[in-house]
Amino acid sequence: MRQGLRPLCAALWLCAGSSAVTSLPIGAEDLFTNSSEVPEVLTATRLRQPSTEVPGSVTVLDRELIRASGARSIPELLRLVPGMKVGYRNGNQVNVNYHGTSITEARRMQVLVDGRSVYRPGLASVDWVDIPLAIEDIERIEVFRGPNTVTYGANALQAVVNVITRNPQDSLGTRSKVTVGERGVREFYGSHGFTAGNASLRLSLGSRQFDGFDELADGSNYHNGSHAEYFTLSALHNLVGEQTLEWQVGAKQGENERPTEDFGLSDPDVEAEDYFGLMRWKGAVSTSHELQVQGYIQQQNRSQDWHTRVPIPLFDPSLGKLYQLNPQLANATVKNPFAVVGTTPEETALLTAFQMTVVNNNCMTSCNESTGTTQARTHERRTDIELQDTWRPFDNFSLVSGLGARHDRADSQTFLGGTVSNDSWRAFSNAEWRFAPNWLLNAGGMFEHDELSGSNFSPRIALNWLFVPEQSLRAVYSEAVRRPDMFEQNAVWSYQGRNMSPLISGSSTASYYQVARAPGDLEPEHIHASELGWNAYWSTWQLSSDIRLFYEELHKQISEPLRLDNFNPSNANQSRFHGAEGQLDWQASPRDRLRLTYAYVDNTASDKIDRRLTARHSGSAGWMHEWNHDWHTSVFYYGADQLNEYPFARTDWRLAKRFQLAHEQRLEIALMWQLRLDDEPLTWAENNQRSRSQWLLSAELDF
Amino acid sequence: MRRTWMWQTFCKLLLGMSLLGGAAMLQAASLWVLAEHDTAAVQSFQHTLQAQRRQDTVSLVTLNQAAATPSPQGTWILLGDKALTWHLQHNASAPALALLISQQQTQHLNIPANLPLTLLWREAPASRQLKLGQLLMPLHSRVGVLFSAASQQQLRALEQTAQQRQIKLVSKSWDGTFPSSQVQRVLEDSQWLLALDDPSLFNPTTIKPLLLGAYRQKRVLIGPNAGYVQAGSLASTYSDQQDWLKQLNELLDMPAKQRPRSAFARYFKVMLNQQVAHSLGLTNADAAQLAEQLRQGEQP
């Protein structure tokens, strides 16, 4: 529950700045109600904030909802979040953006797993399929909708997804699960929770694979599946006093398929490896004062090796040098080697050399070719440490403050021409002040400095008015930044052929003539966001709702697609989003739960590429029902009027039966059916399925 | 004529009996409060009882004093299981009412049924706690219960109420140690947890991991008594000295033979942890109102 670094604020977790530690009316000399020996456990710093007092918009996906949805990945679960746009670049590359922007690079949302950022430091993306995590281990997902750099640091630009896994103390025993289904779905999961001394531990192991989309737009087979194996080991030690020590280690390895590209003889599938270790100590100074120190290290390796057959002239060194001097001339030369002239003696000399290569390799008919291997590898490492202090000196005031330092390092000959590292530090604080019984003010800021992008301060101020006890109106203004990643800022991007045969210019290694170099002068992207929200929780009906109006302006936006032949990122673009969105969660009866979300987003952007992933209308609806004899059903609808110009509508059905077996064993068999309600591709024209429907079956045994 | 005489005689007899009865009621009684120690709280109890029963003499006797002198005549108010045990061993034939005792504590005492003794259970009846939880969370129908061998009786009493109210009890036997797969299973399968008054399960040592684990999984605890509400239990019914004295007063006014063999607290209040309620969004919950709703539900 508290693994999140600063779960949603100081948001959800801390600071119930609330009314009221009401002193309990027990007389000291009352024989019948003497209770002095019972400790106060759920202290103010441990209690979650009610949703009416959160300084922003939050969507919580709990375990019951996650299970009922039948979703097998976090992006699919995020369709339950209003305003979230889930697009697929291919079967194993998912682009999840909140409200929109880039269709190809989803890099404006922070994603944390138990307080650890899984956002790649070098190539600024979230590789959803490569996170070493099983859906079955998730306790809940908290999504902070809107900028939250104040709490989570840079890159929490448009939203924050905070995945919180089950506490090892709450997952003792053994669980195993198998899921099989159409489209090549094969998943295995096993976990065992146990105790050792003062510690609770959980080891989870699993594998997953799927085929991805079936066919390209022309009907040919699409090579875009994925398979992976992973493990995580989580532990929690209860130390003396109020202290706890948590640690986690995990690893994942697998392969993500990529279709064959130009000059390729084999598929450039990505070997993906992720490793991490995390440690967190928590201690209570008093019932109103807590400290936390967290450190983690993670390594993300991506490796592609493929066989190529290339026209020799394109790897000619003189063409490469000409490209460095005059890219346009070099590109024109490739199209028609004898129709261009150099503007300087050096260019002319290089051009002449290249023309010789063209002639010598018989390019008048078809060029001589050389075969070899090409590779693209990245090794990214992040080391992060943070101290956080949560203090509630008065009933109506609380403060969360902290300091953090980070070292990022990325090593990639292909994308960075070597190694790039970046050191950064940050200081943050958020104060919550209940200045009148029904009024709550949150004010905070994050100051960050890093070597590559300089310094930034991101503030937030929020006012919540609880006009009746169960309802509040809020006004929030916040700013946030996204720092250019190492690739945008420091790219030296080139492809090298190795073991080339025949030799090219007498060498077995040769470089493709195009090399992309980053200008290196990018500034962080900035967002200014305002919102007006209405939050209500009617406890009598167990109905919670949240509606908000928002206005967001994104400046200095880096929109240009990063292409080898055209690598010119700049801060020249901007986007604006305004609209309304809402969510409703209703326990309609002891056996029925209903859930609705809807978002209307109006987007204007200076670069049309930033408008493509924004659906004007999107939403979801769900009904979960518990029948007699442990039968459970759920049905969900997801819809978006356009994701990259394609509409999307799908219903997901789930029927489950739970069996209580002997010796505390429990078995759940679930049948799931997904049905697309349209015949459109998903996000891109090549993402097609042969059938609208997909059947899946799972069996889970707990003992 | 004969009929008139008979009628007059009957009326006189009735009047005489009434006067006799009234005189008996008004007759000063000796009430002996037997407690293990003479503490401020015990003295407060004695003084308040005396103030309520001016016609009687309320005296305090500690166990040491009682052991040193023969037991005087009168009605005995026994505070706690040690006082009850002493009474059963040395003065069992005297009329007595025992307070501050639990069903669990008296299970091993094998108290004969014919004694003029009334046992007043200190614990809140589990069915009342169940109803309180239902008032607070009307749409949650799966209620977790952890029990030990000693509290099995409380669980059985609860099952009937649960059935009447269409509540499904998710119960598991537990030994009071942590971490526990039984606790985990009950928290997973239920929507809130009802804590029985069983000190082997719910005590100052176990309450912390239990409450933290329950809260992590968004499960609230109801009960077992007022002391645990301070710790983080959402709510509990409880009876304080004022409630018990009111009930005691009524029982003392009854002839000893008419007193029940045992009873739960008839008068009670509700204690609510406002901070936990607030965190759960139960901002409209009001302890006095909840107690009133429960009282109305218990009226015959």
From TrEMBL, chain A:
<comment type="similarity">
    <text>Belongs to the TonB-dependent receptor family.</text>
</comment>
<keyword id="KW-0798">TonB box</keyword>
<keyword id="KW-1134">Transmembrane beta strand</keyword>
<dbReference type="Pfam" id="PF00593">
    <property type="entry name" value="TonB_dep_Rec_b-barrel"/>
</dbReference>
<feature type="domain" description="TonB-dependent receptor plug">
    <location>
        <begin position="52"/>
        <end position="160"/>
    </location>
</feature>
<keyword id="KW-0813">Transport</keyword>
<dbReference type="GO" id="GO:0009279">
    <property type="term" value="C:cell outer membrane"/>
</dbReference>
<dbReference type="Pfam" id="PF07715">
    <property type="entry name" value="Plug"/>
</dbReference>
<dbReference type="InterPro" id="IPR039426">
    <property type="entry name" value="TonB-dep_rcpt-like"/>
</dbReference>
<dbReference type="InterPro" id="IPR037066">
    <property type="entry name" value="Plug_dom_sf"/>
</dbReference>
<keyword id="KW-0998">Cell outer membrane</keyword>
<dbReference type="GO" id="GO:0015344">
    <property type="term" value="F:siderophore uptake transmembrane transporter activity"/>
</dbReference>
<keyword id="KW-0732">Signal</keyword>
<dbReference type="InterPro" id="IPR012910">
    <property type="entry name" value="Plug_dom"/>
</dbReference>
<protein>
    <submittedName>
        <fullName>Iron complex outermembrane recepter protein</fullName>
    </submittedName>
</protein>
<keyword id="KW-0812">Transmembrane</keyword>
<dbReference type="GO" id="GO:0044718">
    <property type="term" value="P:siderophore transmembrane transport"/>
</dbReference>
<feature type="signal peptide">
    <location>
        <begin position="1"/>
        <end position="28"/>
    </location>
</feature>
<dbReference type="InterPro" id="IPR000531">
    <property type="entry name" value="Beta-barrel_TonB"/>
</dbReference>
<feature type="domain" description="TonB-dependent receptor-like beta-barrel">
    <location>
        <begin position="378"/>
        <end position="655"/>
    </location>
</feature>
<dbReference type="InterPro" id="IPR036942">
    <property type="entry name" value="Beta-barrel_TonB_sf"/>
</dbReference>
<keyword id="KW-0472">Membrane</keyword>
From TrEMBL, chain B:
<feature type="signal peptide">
    <location>
        <begin position="1"/>
        <end position="28"/>
    </location>
</feature>
<dbReference type="InterPro" id="IPR007487">
    <property type="entry name" value="ABC_transpt-TYRBP-like"/>
</dbReference>
<keyword id="KW-0732">Signal</keyword>
<protein>
    <submittedName>
        <fullName>ABC-type uncharacterized transport system, substrate-binding protein</fullName>
    </submittedName>
</protein>
